[in-house]
């Protein structure tokens, strides 16, 4: 892991296969990732892209694809109007702990002094809390994103 | 003790589909906390200067502290000192702040663990291992009615670092 980095751990009562599907299936991501739909064939070297209502948001390449244990991809924010910073990297590690999955998300190779660290530090807890909710209750989180953004910048 | 000189060492944020009042209750009630805090029960006097205590499932004193900031259901700051001999003398007190903020129908809960001196990542690893499990289970309890059964290994890295400092660990 290179610094600066953001690491987030959450525990989800589900199977590793379900978490893997939730991370890689566009129909599923659209439901809990605040409208972000992912597309890729998830082979190593393949491209992936998150789009929201057809608008590109984030894209990159699949670096490691070891279902249902480890997924690594590069991360480039391509949202209209966003400042481009160096391509960063996201690693998902899915570790079974009894009847629960420990999900560790590591976002590193982040540009020093840029805004990526701040943005992903605010974003991942929302996405991962919503992912946990949808897998455990069937309902994604209805976070007021504008209010959350205000809090983050306060 | 002045809490101004404490600096955040670990911050954990989680979003929960619940009201601020429910989250406050989960953080401050013995009955609730037993379900998600590895069987430990929180006993807190809801006023500045009140006592903050965590007991293990067998009733032994595990953590003791005092309430420094208290604004239900928005903010609670307490000292959170593990009841192990020499720990506080060698590492100083631990301060924990919970902030509860509504974002639409959802609550943003932020836990900040602060210290009055720099501590190594080895020492801090205990809290960094524990908080995600405790607060993930709290979220499950509030959203599904059931806490999680997480199998946790003892915080070996932290225990080894404490032993190296001559602190007796259980």
Topology record:
The complex is a heterodimer of chains A (154) and B (170).
Chain A: E1 6-12, H1 16-24, H2 26-32, E2 36-39, E3 47-52, E4 55-66, E5 70-77, E6 88-97, E7 100-108, H3 116-137, H4 145-153
Antiparallel strand pairs in A: 1-7, 2-3, 3-4, 4-5, 5-6, 6-7
Chain B: E1 7-16, H1 20-28, H2 30-36, E2 41-44, E3 51-55, E4 61-71, E5 75-79, E6 81-82, H3 87-91, E7 94-103, E8 106-115, H4 121-144, H5 156-164
Antiparallel strand pairs in B: 1-8, 2-3, 3-4, 4-5, 4-6, 5-7, 7-8
The topology string of helices and strands of chain A comes to: EHHEEEEEEHH
CATH fold label of chain A? Alpha-D-Glucose-1,6-Bisphosphate, Chain A, domain 4
The biggest sheet of chain B, with number of strands, parallel, antiparallel or mixed sense and barrel status, is:
8 strands, antiparallel
Q: How many domains would you count in the coordinates of chain A? A: 1
Strand fraction band of chain B?
A: 25-35%
- Structural class by SSE content of chain A: alpha+beta
The overall pLDDT average of chain A reads 95
Shape of chain A: globular
Could you tell me how far the N terminus lies from the C terminus of chain B, measured between alpha carbons in angstroms? 28 Å
Structural class of chain B comes to alpha+beta
Q: Let me know the CATH homologous superfamily of chain A.
A: START domain
CATH-defined architecture of chain A: 2-Layer Sandwich
Identify the most extensive interface between protein chains: A-B, 28 and 25 residues
| Principal-axis shape of chain B | globular
- Tell me, what is the CATH class of chain A? Alpha Beta
Query: What profile does the largest beta sheet of chain A have?
Result: 7 strands, antiparallel
What does this molecule look like?
The complex is a heterodimer of chains A (154) and B (170). With 154 residues, chain A is an alpha+beta fold. Chain A has a single domain, classed as Alpha-D-Glucose-1,6-Bisphosphate, Chain A, domain 4. Chain A has four helices and seven strands, in the order E-H-H-E-E-E-E-E-E-H-H. Chain A has a seven-stranded antiparallel β-sheet. In chain A, strand 4 and strand 5 form a beta hairpin. The mean pLDDT of chain A is 95. With 170 residues, chain B is an alpha+beta fold. Chain B has a single domain, classed as START domain (Alpha-D-Glucose-1,6-Bisphosphate, Chain A, domain 4, 2-Layer Sandwich). Helices cover 32% and strands 34% of the residues of chain B. In chain B, strands 1, 2, 3, 4, 5, 6, 7 and 8 form an eight-stranded antiparallel β-sheet that branches. In chain B, a hairpin with a 6-residue loop joins strand 2 and strand 3. The longest helix of chain B is centred in the C-terminal third of the chain and has 24 residues. The two termini of chain B are 28 Å apart. The mean pLDDT of chain B is 95. The interface between A and B is medium-sized, with 28 and 25 residues.
């Amino acid at each position: 892991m290179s610094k600066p980095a953001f690491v987030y751990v959450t525990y989800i009562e589900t199977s590793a296969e379900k978490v893997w599907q939730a991370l890689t299936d566009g129909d599923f991501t659209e439901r809990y990732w605040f409208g972000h739909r992912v597309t890729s064939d998830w082979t190593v070297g393949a491209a992936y892209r998150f789009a929201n209502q057809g608008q590109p948001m984030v894209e990159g390449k699949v670096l490691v694809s070891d279902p249902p244990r480890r997924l690594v991809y590069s991360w480039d924010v391509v949202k209209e109007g966003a400042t481009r910073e160096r391509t960063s990297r996201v690693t998902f590690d899915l570790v079974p702990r009894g009847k629960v999955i420990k999900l560790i998300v590591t976002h590193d190779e982040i540009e020093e002094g840029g805004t990526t660290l701040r943005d992903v530090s605010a974003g991942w807890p929302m996405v991962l809390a919503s992912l946990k909710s949808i897998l455990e209750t069937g309902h994604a989180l209805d976070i007021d994103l504008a209010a959350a953004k205000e809090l983050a910048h306060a | 003790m002045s809490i101004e000189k404490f600096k955040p060492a670990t911050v954990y944020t989680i979003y929960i589909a619940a009201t601020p009042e429910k989250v406050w209750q989960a953080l401050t009630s013995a009955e609730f906390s037993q379900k998600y805090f590895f069987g430990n029960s929180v006993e807190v006097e809801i006023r500045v200067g009140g006592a903050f205590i965590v007991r293990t499932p067998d009733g032994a004193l595990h953590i003791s502290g005092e309430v420094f900031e208290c604004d239900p259901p928005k903010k609670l700051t307490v000292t959170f000192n593990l009841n192990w001999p020499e720990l506080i003398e060698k590492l100083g007190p631990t301060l924990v702040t919970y902030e509860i903020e509504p974002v639409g129908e959802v609550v943003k809960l932020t836990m900040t663990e602060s210290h009055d001196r720099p501590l190594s990542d080895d020492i801090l690893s205990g809290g960094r291992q524990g908080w995600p499990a405790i607060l993930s289970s709290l979220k499950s309890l509030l959203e599904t009615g059931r806490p999680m059964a997480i199998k946790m290994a003892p915080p070996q890295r932290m225990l080894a670092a404490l032993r190296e400092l001559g602190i007796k660990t259980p």
